[in-house]
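Recap quiz, item 2
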Amino acid sequence: AQTVTQSQPEMSVQEAETVTLSCTYDTSESDYYLFWYKQPPSRQMILVIRQEAYKQQNATENRFSVNFQKAAKSFSLKISDSQLGDAAMYFCAYRFRDDKIIFGKGTRLHILP
Amino acid sequence: NAGVMQNPRHLVRRRGQEARLRCSPMKGHSHVYWYRQLPEEGLKFMVYLQKENIIDESGMPKERFSAEFPKEGPSILRIQQVVRGDSAAYFCASSPGTGRINTEAFFGQGTRLTVV
């Protein structure tokens, strides 16, 4: 069965600094998708970034980038130039084709002014 | 293009009552997924439906919970005889239909169910 593990329940970072959130997953598939979702206090699930497993190049979206290590089944999220608005729960997620999305337990990110 | 619409946003039920949660997927989407989120936890998969079919209900409790996605109208998650432990946020997500690789599911804002 596929699983997603986030080993950091909480993290803090100084405003304008860089922070990396860790995620590992387990699957026997070779073609799948990985995501990072952000959940602010409003509870809305917001897609931050996605990675197709067949692509070797790491995805980047403005200040957000990933380090995708397929062999190690690792998918970390780097947030550069952290801003107060980045404070939220961050969920790593896995999906095989159009099957259900499987989420990790989340990392609560605090931004220190 | 309206997003995924869930209603109500907040629902209060007394123990033993029924709760009905509604989800209207994005236009053109025929795949619906329901998730439950307990406080300070991640989203736990409950059920995956396509129009008039349950594809995967491996995350649904065996009793009191049911889901449907009729040919017309929203998807409904129904909880009968609610108990305090059912208190949670319930999220719905939708994806486009078959024939395409669906990389992203779009989420509604959730329904917060409180059982008193």
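The CA atoms of residues 5 and 24 of chain A lie 5 Å apart.
Chain A has no helices and twelve strands.
End of item.
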